[in-house]
Amino acid sequence: MAKPKLIxxxxxxxxxxxxxxxxxxxxxxxxxxxxxxxxxxxxxSNAEVHDQRYAVQFNISPxxxxxxxxxxxxxxxxxxxxxxxxxxxxxxxxxxxxxxxxSKLELQTKINITGNGLQQPAFNQRSGRIELVDxxxxxxYNLDQNGLRQ
Length: 150
What we know:
Helix content is about 20%, strand content about 40%. It has helices spanning about 1-20, 60-65, and strands at about 40, 50, 55-60, 75-80, 85-90, 95-100, 105-110, 120-125, 130-135, 140-145, 145-150. The strands form three sheets. It has a five-stranded antiparallel beta sheet, with no helix packed on it. A four-stranded antiparallel beta sheet has the order 8-9-10-11, with no helix packed on it. Strands 2-3 form a two-stranded antiparallel ribbon. About 25% of the residues are buried.
């Protein structure tokens, strides 16, 4: 009598582990995360920025500290097709590339652009890359999540 119960229990356990091992296998390929237009965001008194159009909100204090500045009037934010966020502001020497993670943005790359600070930065979405233009100087830089591109 105990043997049929053991066999039934063994089969249930095997089915459970088999179903768990399969897991969800649905994958959507070819996702394009690109934001076609940069967001120009004004930090509040707590250094929080909120982009309602693309539903993202975060605090820029760590970036301000990294740049050695107390505040900025606006930050520039754009997302490339791979899903990385590019962030900079007037007075910054760098562009910060962040990878989205659960409830956070993790620094992927810090791209040094200039030692004098950007004057009037603007991002553009280009085929396979992000273009950074300093409107004041006319300098143009091609970027991706790994750094400067030629």
